Amino acid sequence: MSAVVLDGKATRDEVFVDLKERVDKLRDVGVTPGLGTILVGDDPGSQAYVRGKHNDCAKVGIASIRKDLPADITTEQLNAAIDELNADPGCTGYIVQLPLPKHLDENAALERIDPEKDADGLHPINLGRLVLDGAGTGTSALPCTPRGILHLLRRYDVPVRGAHVVVVGRGVTVGRPIGLLLTRRTENATVTLCHTGTRDLAAEVSRADIVIAAAGVPGLITAAMVKPGAAVIDVGVSRTADGLVGDVAQDVWDVAGHVSPNPGGVGPLTRAFLLANVVERAEAALVRA
Ligand SMILES: Nc1nc2c(c(=O)[nH]1)N[C@@H](CN(C=O)c1ccc(C(=O)N[C@@H](CCC(=O)O)C(=O)O)cc1)CN2
């Protein structure tokens, strides 16, 4: 069996066509959405991600506001940068690129972002609204990577309603929030969250209709674990001497029904839905005006 490729780049391009049309309409009425980014330090991976996000903005007509700060900044200096973007009328939404240097408190930084400008959808208030929003009709920004994963599954007609989804990894950007999205009444999946404390990972994964690998452990998910025909989403990213490596071993492609490549799968959609969150915040502000 050769798995169907869940092509994130082609899917991203489709999302961009829609976003550019919406941005053009906003510009026609004098509204230019703006994405802000705060990048602390010089981690090459984070620099590449932020560069990619701003390149994407140029493709769809969203303005860019970049704040690149040195790794040794103080909490007060980071807070000042966050407060500036909270107050900047040209900034529709923004992100604090994660991870931050160890001396800075990530949770405190995320909580300082104005929830109405939270382009990541990771602010506690927006995640809390997701918890409360059983019907899946909320208007808060949704976490970009979980949103991108759901879009990719729907784009390739992978059944989600009633599916047993096993998530591997409990990180802030994917593992923890994805279950909130998939267990909404609009998706109705059953989600198991596995992590380093899980006793028998292989047994849990073997029961999955959909596996979401977001642990950042190269080759963690192997063919022996995966139920034949299951969909496998590879989100984990590890930078090795061989470059970017995902969590899913190559042999999984022989048994799975669908696999998202990494790179080339969820990553581009993470960026696409970051922009979608910015556009939706601008559209919502226009409706309120
Ligand atoms: N504030 C945030 N920080 C981080 C997030 C996030 O959602 N919000 N997620 C990850 C990294 N990430 C977003 O910043 C991210 C991961 C991957 C990609 C991407 O486009 N990957 C490409 C390959 C890119 C390359 O070649 O370097 C792909 O998969 O094809 C974009 C963004 C942690 N931080």
Helix count equals 9
Shape: globular
Identify every distinct bound molecule in the structure, by name, code or SMILES: the ligand Nc1nc2c(c(=O)[nH]1)N[C@@H](CN(C=O)c1ccc(C(=O)N[C@@H](CCC(=O)O)C(=O)O)cc1)CN2
Q: Largest sheet at a glance? A: 6 strands, parallel
What share of the residues does DSSP label as strand, in percent?
Answer: 15-25%
- The number of strands is 11
The class by helix and strand makeup works out as alpha/beta
Query: What is the rounded distance between the termini?
Result: 54 Å
Report a brief summary of the structure.
Helix content is 40%, strand content 16%. The chain has helices spanning 8-28, 44-60, 75-87, 106-112, 124-132, 144-155, 175-182, 201-206, 266-288; strands spanning 4-5, 34-40, 63-69, 93-96, 164-168, 190-194, 210-213, 231-234, 238-240, 243-245, 258-260.
Overview features:
single chain; 289 residues; alpha/beta; 6-stranded parallel sheet; 3-stranded parallel sheet; binds the ligand Nc1nc2c(c(=O)[nH]1)N[C@@H](CN(C=O)c1ccc(C(=O)N[C@@H](CCC(=O)O)C(=O)O)cc1)CN2; oxidoreductase; THF_DH/CycHdrlase_cat_dom; histidine biosynthesis
Q: Please, could you describe this protein's structure?
A:
With 289 residues, the protein is an alpha/beta fold. The mean pLDDT is 95. The protein has a six-stranded parallel beta sheet with strand order 1-11-8-7-5-6. The termini are far apart. Helix 1 packs parallel to helix 9 (266-288). The chain has nine helices and eleven strands. 40% of the residues lie in helices and 16% in strands. Strand 2, helix 2 (44-60) and strand 3 (63-69) form a beta-alpha-beta unit. The structure holds the ligand Nc1nc2c(c(=O)[nH]1)N[C@@H](CN(C=O)c1ccc(C(=O)N[C@@H](CCC(=O)O)C(=O)O)cc1)CN2. The ligand Nc1nc2c(c(=O)[nH]1)N[C@@H](CN(C=O)c1ccc(C(=O)N[C@@H](CCC(=O)O)C(=O)O)cc1)CN2 is lined by residues 48-49, 52, 95-98, 120, 144-145, 173, 244, 262-264, 267-268, 270-271.
